[in-house]
Amino acid sequence: MxxxxxxxxxxxxxxxxGTPPRAPVTQPRLGAVGWLRFLWRQLTSMRTALFLLLLxxxxxxxxxxxxxxxxxxxxxxxxxxxxxxxxxxLDKLGFFAxxxxxxxxxxxLLLFVSLIGCVAPRSRIHWHQLRSRPPRAPRRLERLxxxxxxxxxxxxxxxxxxxxxxxxxxxxxxxxxxxxxxSAEKGYLKETGNLVFHLALIGVLVGVAWGHLLxxxxxxxxxxxxxxxxxxxxxxxxxxxPWVDVNDLSPYAIRLDRLDVKFETEDTGRGQFGxxxxxxxxxxxxxxxxxxxxxxxxxxxxxxxxxxxxxxLGNGYAPKVTVRNAAGKAxxxxxxxxxxxxxxxxxxxxxxxxxxxxxxxxxxxxxLPTGVIDSEQGPHSTFPDTLDPQLALTAFSGTLFxxxxxxxxxxLDTAEMKPLPGKDGADQLRILLKPGQTYELPEGRGSITFxxxxxxxxxxxxxxxxxxxxxxxxxxxLAGLVLSLVVRRRRxxxxxxxxxxxxxxxxxxxxxAKDDDEGMADEVAAVLTAPGGTR
Amino acid sequence: MTDLTLAxxxxxxxxxxxxxxxxxxxxxxxxxxxxxxxxEAVAVEAPxxxxxxxGGGSAPGDDAPAVPTEKADEPAGARKAxxxxxxxxxxxxxxxxxxxxLRALEVxxxxxxxxxxxxxxxxxxxxxxxxxxxxxxxxxxxxxxxTGPVLLxxxxxxxxxxxxxxxxxxxxxxxxxxxxxxVATMSVAVFTIGASLGILYLIQDRVEAREGGATGRAAxxxxxxTARALERLTYATxxxxxxxxxxxxxxxxxxxxxxxxxxxxxxxxxxxxFVIWTVYAAYLHARATTGWxxxxxxxxxxxxxxxxxxxxxxVNVFFVGQHSYSGM
Lengths: 535, 328
Ligand code: HEM
Hints:
Chain A is an alpha+beta fold and about 525 residues long. Chain A has 10 helices and 24 strands.
């Protein structure tokens, strides 16, 4: 298949055809339609496609060098704070959301418009070619790239018919335009593959877009023993696609019965000590119909619910704390999830006790599964499992929810709170608790007891209705690509004529291939010498 | 055998392979240096061809041999050097294979869990691809340009990226690790050979342009195939590697959906896999675009290879993402 006749090209007539260039004044005005046509031609040219492809690759790079808000919002905010001048400008230009930015979208949308504009006419032409005959043999086969000639036994007609058989058995499509020649062609699958490849890319894009519009994802933290019921209000965070009906979630429930977490306990001196080894959640799954089943969720092993897939993406600790008032009455008993900060699960969190009197109480600080407190690093954990669990807290009194707005469960908003003073006159009370220990709060505010530790699972529930289309299209694209690259488009022409006076036949075979095809000469030779043909 | 012995044997294999491959490179270099007069005889002007290609467009035909075949013209010494070079390359390949297999036995898993392992497995596939390909055509002139890069990679692997045996993060324990990373490493191996060929092509092309045609090339470059043949070989390697890379990206997406919940997260490693894919797609496109010079197309393929290198050596180490591997 040539690169010139199968698709609209922008190439103008070659210069130097004798006519001098016309003066600009006499050039016909293009007019609006002319301009549109010109632009369309430009857009659907292979050069433009090439340029856009390269542009797309360059445009994708900033997304890996700058933090992306959708992946790590905290790091993005930090980056902007660290770069007070460049940060906000980059933010405006979309550098922290590259793949959702208008310029990135512009590039790939233009590319796909170009793709459609290019592939549609090519498909039509190919469809036509698939049903047409190979072209007439050139007059002088010896001028073709690959050519061979021989004198063989038999009349020209006999030889020609035998060669027709040979070409057919080599899967050529054969046609005789006249009595002394054959035209044969094969490798139509090359162009078919190429078109399938390009069309399937559109399928990938549609699948991605579909998933974006109709998919959703939600994250929720579930302590061991708790049940998660799939409804909008149960989620800690929920991000639906623009077309998602958030009231239409499948009403299933998941109870987290047990969470097994294994870490490397052997210190081999290879930096592997404490690395995670296995996470596994044992759950009781209640289907929307009310049946219950025992199901496991592990990393690489999501739970498919039919209304979203449930992934175990995180885990951590929820220290269980009881706060009592001065009278010794429990006013708060709960396992509060703390958010892991590092590989050893040094976790931060906040305990909010709105029921305290006279002011509300708040505790903020660290949970350390294997706690060490030193002056250099402060409180931190040295192993991810609970070898020596400790809770290091500071305490505040005042108003927990100033303005009543939403706030993170892991942090304390201390805008309208003041720290409780330390015992020995320090202006900040520091509490360090091990399981079972109780601390008496100053100013007659009661006590806080560290009862024990529970684990929680970080579940992420996602749907992507476009993923099957995306996958099938991607695999089709791969198949088309392989066909397009592996299949060779070849034409073979045969001419026969009687040799003067001998009753034998001069047979001439010529071959033509698309692009470079080193094997064409061999192919011509193979046609000429195939058993059942001239031999 | 204990894991420690296995580790030592594996490292020993890799070190021996480096020694053997160094010798192989020298022998191949000697071959190039001593085969000077060989190719003058081939330069027969190709007869003028009818410029019609299948499909009706134009593509000049050419049936000149892609590679020098007339071994008879080579000095005996050169031929011997090439023979030794080839045997040593095969031996070095076997040693790298042994190193990888021993490593797998040592770590009790698929040996593709950290940068050290990627590097030695990549080196192994590069050598295997070269050895397999040279069984089908005369690639003695390419020996230096394969053993050289492989030695660099092995050297960096053993000195910079070396990681002791370790188990994998939970998210890396999946059959998709074997599938996705193995094919990725294989395609990088083939891209590496393709990049070597591309560079040789660009040099050869310049030399031919300066010295007027295929006959008058500088001594060293005269021992290599013509620019035209080199360009074809460059293309041939890329049409093998590109579909493999396409598969790598698809398999990675399938795995990402299993492990992280969504098949595409624009994690830095994914970004770079995508960039590599589009750049090489641009190369194949450029090669098929009328009016684009082959040289420029090959430059694009080399840009693709730079991205491959960045993806491995820089993105793995310096970029924050979910593809953070154990120990590196
Ligand atoms: C998403 C954008 C695109 C990608 C990733 C892409 C990729 C590729 C790749 C990898 C090839 C080589 C493999 C093959 O021959 O099938 C190719 C070939 C081709 N592409 Fe594209 N392409 C894109 C858009 C376009 C557009 C917009 C056009 C038209 C202007 C186009 C026209 C062609 C043609 C005609 C070939 C075949 C060249 C030949 O073998 O003669 N492509 N494309």
